[in-house]
Amino acid sequence: MRLPFDQAVTRHGETVLRVCRAVLGPGPDADDAWSETFLAALKTWPDLPEETNTEAWLVRVARRKAIDVVRARARHATPSDDLPERVSSLGTPGDDEHGVWAAVAGLPERQRLAIAYHYLGGLPHTETAAIIGSSPDAVRRAASDGIRRLRQTYHDGEHTEGAPR
């Protein structure tokens, strides 16, 4: 005959906690794994066959719950007080090393807005047109003209200050 659940917790609780602590070390993670073990066991308890070795079954559940905690730890970032100093290969955001932002800023307003909203903001020409108060065809044309002008600037060597030659 199987024990009532509360008696199983009393009888096997220490063993389950030892298993959790063996995998996770002492502390709140082991306590959480212990709790999770008995929550999972409570859900399955009514369907557990009579001949089941309760202690072995609870130890197996505890081991799996402890491993779940170990996996969860691996997925979370580890806080650190000291951050390594590394130089980005992409440069500093906002730097205009190649003069691109200066070249875009030098475009006529409609071209600049069409490029900003469509190419940089990812909006379709219809939404860009609604924002700047124009038609989609006019926005498409302004964006095309702006891109052509930027290409000419960079292909013809008319770079702004600091741009590569």
UniProtKB/TrEMBL annotation:
GO molecular function: DNA binding; sigma factor activity
InterPro entries: RNA_pol_sigma-70-like, RNA_pol_sigma-70_dom, RNA_pol_sigma70_r2, RNA_pol_sigma70_r4_t2, RNA_pol_sigma_r2, RNA_pol_sigma_r3/r4-like, WH-like_DNA-bd_sf
Keyword line: DNA-binding, Sigma factor, Transcription, Transcription regulation
Residue ranges occupied by any RNA polymerase sigma factor 70 region 4 type domain in the UniProt entry: 101-150
RNA polymerase sigma-70 region domain span: 9-75
GO biological process: DNA-templated transcription initiation
A Pfam short name: Sigma70_r2
The keyword Transcription appears for this protein: yes
CDD domains the record matches: Sigma70_r4 (cd06171)
UniProt keyword annotation of Transcription regulation present: yes
Annotated family: Belongs to the sigma-70 factor family. ECF subfamily.
Alphabetized PANTHER family for the sequence: RNA POLYMERASE ECF-TYPE SIGMA FACTO, RNA POLYMERASE SIGMA FACTOR HI_1459-RELATED
Protein name: RNA polymerase subunit sigma-24
Lineage, broadest ranks: Bacteria, Bacillati, Actinomycetota, Actinomycetes, Micrococcales
